[in-house]
Amino acid sequence: MVVRLIVYMFLLAASGANAAVTASIDRADVDLNESFTLDITTDLNVDAQPDVTVLETDFLVGQSSFVTNTTILNGQIRRSKTWSYVLMPKRAGQLTIPPISIGGEFSNPLVVEISEPSYAPPGEAEVFVTTEVDTPETYVQAQLLLTVKIYRSVAVRQPALRDPVVSGAEVLLELAGDDRSYEAVIGGTPYGVIERVIAIYPQESGEIQLSPARFEARVLRDGRITGRKIYESEPLTVTVLPTPAPPARFPNANWLPARDLTLTEDWSQQGNELKAGEPLTRRISIEALGQLETQIPAIEPPTTEGISVYPDKPELSRRIEPGGIRGIRQDQYALIGVRAGDVQLPALEVPWWNTESKQWQIATLPQRTITIIGAEEPEIVTPIPDASDSTAVTAVTSVAVQSEFWRRVSEALAVLLLLTCSAWWWSARSPAAPRTPREPAVLPTHKRQAALLKKARTAALAADAAGVRAAIIAWGQLQWPDNAPRSIGAIADRVSSPLAEELRALSRQSYGPEAAAWDGAALARGLRSFAILSEQEADDDDLLPPLLPPTSVQRSA
């Protein structure tokens, strides 16, 4: 295995540093009876296809697909081709996907961990749900991965998955990527699998209980759809361990649990020399697998004499990996030298708790010495004019003349300001002329109509029939100024339903032979939305029905 991997790496080095063919997989940990997807992507303009015969030693190569991608970035057009292959491992263990050849280039090798199946289906179930956690114990603020899998050997309709409910200790929940689909063979029966991974971050010690995941669907069997069925997984319990004591060297260390952690730095310029007054940017990055980017503490750079440090806003991001969520925090600082000489930046150390080995570890950036070069400023000497130099005398005379000119201008401006203030004071003492009161502006017709309709609605809700009539008739006079209606019954003939019926009911209550009930709330609702009928529509409403139906036959005597 090791010899083969060395040969693969040699082939990659021979193909060039910038590989034009890349390989990737959707999962790095796979059970022996499960499938996974291998993607081969190239930006080469070739018609050849990948040679996947090298995979047949350790994998069964199943269904394949092909897609062409075109992207435009900064005006540059980039085209790529991607082949996807469904692979099923033939044996358990750590298997290597060898480099795939296409167009004379080779892809990168990949390592996938194949495990023995850890569970069996409940009997001959056509549909079942499983839940599992990556560890039975975790720490406060450490990542716990909950994996929910739905197995289906039959087609289903109207599927719905309800995630487990977490109770007990307080937690934060985050989806660790999108749902994945693949195939599995259990007991000789092929299943379609949908997998969802949820990252759980306990916020206190104790226990957390995970209720069963629930999957609801209707099963399609023999061309018929059954009623809605419910499938549940088993409940789970996880212990949350308390925070261990900080290391002796760092008694005030921040609690930072992770599976692994990398600490890197990047500088805006190479070399160890810096001119005084010029900025130098230092970017420090922490990448923690199994930690949210918002929970990674800020890095405080040590203060150093001779350099001023100005922090910038941090950049937070995340990346989904087979091990869960990798939180990324980038802190950026501007360093400005204030005095010449050598300045030593001490080493930067970040303690963190390794949840795999269950011990404290220290991530370190080495110390660095920066030489500050002092900026030489030229001395500015003001020459003294010689009395014998006629040019100097002329210059001095010119300056004196200009100074006398601007003094006169300043005096004139001062006098003008004084006169202005005097005039303002005198006008303030004089009695003001009586102002003619302005007539109130007449509101536009549509605003007056809106106010009358609002008044009518208020009166209707208060069961004030007289107020409704007055407001509606006033509104009608504005709506039809040339042919104003004289009653709410006439207005009812000119508006649409249901307002028309409510106005007629109010009219019968007021003028009918017997007092009839009217619904103020219904009338108020009708006033909120109605239409004005055209003259033709209003005339049609006044027509009487025919004496005989059109299809009737009149018999003669």
Question: Could you walk me through the main structural features you see in this protein, from its secondary elements to its overall organization?
Answer:
The protein is α+β, with helices and mostly antiparallel strands and 557 residues long. It has 4 domains: 2-115, Immunoglobulin-like (Sandwich), CATH 2.60.40; 127-241, Immunoglobulin-like, CATH 2.60.40.740; 257-373, Immunoglobulin-like (Sandwich), CATH 2.60.40; 445-542, no CATH class. It has 8 helices and 32 strands. The chain has helices at residues 2-14, 390-429, 445-461, 465-479, 488-492, 499-511, 520-528, 535-542, and strands at 21-25, 29-31, 36-42, 59-73, 76-89, 93-97, 101-102, 105-106, 110-115, 127-133, 137-139, 144-152, 155-162, 166-168, 171-175, 180-186, 189-202, 206-210, 214-221, 224-232, 236-241, 257-258, 260-267, 273-275, 279-289, 307-311, 315-321, 324-337, 341-345, 348-354, 359-365, 368-373. Strands 10, 12, 15, 16 and 17 form a 5-stranded antiparallel sheet that branches. Strands 23, 25, 26, 27 and 28 form a 5-stranded antiparallel sheet that branches. Helix 3 (445-461) packs antiparallel against helix 4, helix 3 (445-461) runs antiparallel to helix 7 (520-528) and helix 6 (499-511) runs antiparallel to helix 7 (520-528). The chain is extended and about 95 Å long. Residues 1-18, 378-382, 389-401 and 540-557 have low confidence and may be disordered.
Given as residue ranges, the uncertain stretches (5+ residues, pLDDT < 50) are 1-18, 378-382, 389-401, 540-557
CATH domain class of the largest domain:
Mainly Beta
Helical run tally: 8
Structure class: alpha+beta
The biggest sheet amounts to:
5 strands, antiparallel
What is the number of beta strands?
32
| CA-CA gap between termini | 114 Å
CATH architecture label name of the largest domain: Sandwich
Query: Rg from C-alpha positions?
Result: 43 Å
β content, as a range? 35-45%
